[in-house]
Amino acid sequence: MKKSRLYLWLLLLTGGLNACNSSETVTADTGNNQQVRLGVNINHGVKTRANAPTPPQNYALRCILEVWDINHSSLLYRQELLASNEETLNFTFELANPGNYQVFAWADFIQADAEKTTVEIPVPHDHYADLYYKTNGDNGLKEIFLIPENYAVNAESRDAFYTSQIIYKEDVAYEKELILNRPFAQLNIIEKEAVLLENISQTNFTYRVPSSFNTEKGMPGDEVMDVKQTVTTLPTPSANYNANLLYDYIFASPVNSLLASEIKIAFTSIDSEKQLQDFTIPGNNLPLVANKRTNARGSMLHFTSEMDASTNISIYIDTEWMPENEYGLPNNNYVKVPNFNNQNNPFKYQQQ
Q: Is 158 helix (H, G, I), strand (E, B) or coil?
């Protein structure tokens, strides 16, 4: 009889362990059947404890969590946390009724001294002032909007992460880890003849980008926003970006799409007697994939006195972000896009 009981106890224990190992969701034995605990893991490199992304100087990492009823008719819970490398990104709250719920999470960088206000509607919560992305519109985290007056290029503080998931809570305490990925592609524009960069005193960029992102669909919105940026200090390539002219975070879908807008680049030379030619990258030529980096590299810098206006632009998609999720790309390194030559296609210099 004792042996039978021991065998049954071991069988139940083994089954419980297998259930935990085969599921992302862990049921927490807290004594409170209404409790929900959601931990945040950002971009597969950040664990829920002591491993949040390091904010740029004078910035703080903010993480927001929203829980909606499954019909999206009412917001049940919203909380904003400021994280550091020493803190755990965990959200703990209660859901009274078992069932399906829609969860949205968003993380971005805001000013370290951002103002905090208490908001009562639609649910009471502390809100930190938005910087680059509007997170508290009528649809909350279901739709994120760019803040045009704060738009910036060559700024690592523009980085952000999100997820949208449906969770099912039974009549027991619930615990799960959420993985947040980037909602945009990083576009890097790289001048091949780096020695010519020292001839630039100023660069003006003009193009259009999607102005919003639908987190539920994981897709950029249909509306676009004009970008006009003046750069006087060019970026130095680093582990986080490859650009030496421009890098930007542009809302993108998780499948291969093209930036519809052309990118006009106007260079100002340090020498008034040696002017630099303007350059245009036409629309529908730069591929963008969410959570990946597109690198456009070529000889874009030429003086106006040079007669040959041909150049080659090589474009490839870098998989350094989330290498285990290829979204249908053909290999594990990058996808090649045919080189473009200004003598035979729209990539061309604009004479001043």
A: helix
Element (H, E) at 17: helix 2-21
How confident is the model over 3-15, as pLDDT tens digits? 434 333 333 333 3
- How far out from the chain centre does Cα 134 lie? 14
- Residue 186, CA distances (Å) to 18, 178, 224, 244, 316 in order: 40, 23, 17, 13, 12
Tell me: the pLDDT tens digits for 53-95?
788 999 999 999 999 999 888 999 999 999 865 455 889 999 9
Residue 98: Cβ-neighbour burial (10 angstroms; 0-12, 13-18, 19+): middle
Q: Is the whole model's pTM more than 0.90, yes or no?
A: no
Three-state DSSP class for 197? helix
At residue 196, the 3 state secondary structure works out as: helix
Angstrom distance (rounded) from CA 26 to CA 22: 10
Q: What is the DSSP pairing of strand 143-146 with strand 133-134?
A: antiparallel
Give the separation between CA 183 and CA 214, rounded to whole angstroms. Answer: 9
